[in-house]
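To whoever picks this up:

The parser on our side crashed when reading a file containing two proteins. I've narrowed it down to the boundary between the first structure block and the second sequence. Both blocks are reproduced below exactly, byte for byte. First block:
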Amino acid sequence: MTRSSTAGSYDMSHEVFKGKSKKKTKERNKEKVPAVLVGEHGRYQIKSGYLAGEFVARAFPKPPTQARGLIAEARGATEEAAIANLLEVIDARENRRTAERRTDPRSGLAVPSTEEYREAIGQIALSRPQRAMLAALSLAGEDGMTDARMAYAAGYKSQASANRSFAGAGMLIANYLSAETVSNGYSNVLEGTSILGFRGVARNEEDPGNWILHPELRASVRSGI
């Protein structure tokens, strides 16, 4: 049986784990396993059902991410009400996060919080070189790294390849967090890089300046090293 949600943005097409009693359990106690309804809302997986005498809906990281952990939870008089209440909690959480983002004076872009960066990095598919660059830059701190050192840290032979990969990591994070990527500050940087950091002071005409991660991203990456 297919059930539908009262919230328009909730996708019920991923209903799985319908309540089926396992033979061994059925033989032992004749009890039926409660059904768990699984759906999606934005970038989260929603699970709902009847638990300990009440209807509960919970949000988790959406597969295929390897991240685990409860994102949000809500209850209701019915399962549909619990789901609707959870979606309100999630949307309010997203709106709060967006409103609290710091504006970077160099690019004019809104910089996500450490919490947002941590969640994004835990769920998006960053390559090993991309993670290596972020780790190296986080350890470099406010001094940052030259393009050559950043490329070396990630195993790239070409600085151009490293910069494209760096920008790609920024696009993945920005897409996950629904953040803007087009910078108003610099026209000579690849789209996606400004969500990660900024250029330091250039030493000469041939030196564009070191790459420096935003403090929020730096703290997020360091916490996972």
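<<boundary where parser fails>>
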Amino acid sequence: MTKYLLTSWLFFSMLFAFTKGNAQEIAIYKKDSIVGEFDCFSVDNFGNIYLVKEDILYKLSPALDTLFKTSFKSHFPQYIEASKNFRVLTFDQDRGLIQFYDNTLTPMSTVINLFDLDLVQPLLVCESFNGNGFWVLDAGTLRLLKINDKFEVMVKIENLSFMTKSKLYPTQMFEYNDQLYLVTAHDQVMVFDAFGTYIRKWALKSESLDVFQNNIIAYVSPNFVLSRAILDGEKKSVRWPLQDLKTFKVRQNRIYAQTANGFYIGYFNLISPANNK
């Protein structure tokens, strides 16, 4: 992994004004990078980074030192999530397989075949913090299911087709503050509560999206678009010159981004002009 590691320190910032005249600065600075073609990544609550490259899963420290690595035996994940303490979820969408790992990347379970739960086309999965289960979107039947740690279906939401006018399937799904976000690229975001009850739908363009401290951060090439509070209608943007960005996550004051040829960390802050002298 170390041969892929390049560390660079780039300082840049971009200014913009709030439409109501309350000027602020958004800065993205001190970019670290790892060169390589990665399949997916995640970041845990301690700032550790998980990178999947072909048949290998790496766990890196916040300083980008390799802590653990493991080889996949029977699946090749296109999605990984480390949002729960001491549990890492991996999902092989092509084969419909899920496996959980502990914080040392030791398997916590055998590989779970979602087709055994009568799913037709498992498209997206994500962790759930209410009931210690996980969500699965079945694109084949347009159902949303919540599955517990005994792999029993707890919640089943039928016929999601009424919620979208688009023919596009959702491209992202994640839970934040007991709400489930289902994102359709270039189209909209659907929100459910922790029990699967439909709450609202927003028309929102995004190529990748995250929610942090009740702010929505969407990537619309070449800018990150920040809504300072959910549904307040006030949007600001800042450019981070990354090419071919695939997905990103925001944790604390950092933006972690995966592109076609590398993995990047940007240090992100909202800075009051009065403190920027």
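After patching the parser it read the second block fine. The two ends are 40 Å apart (CA to CA). The domain at 38-207 is CATH 2.120.10.30 (Neuraminidase).
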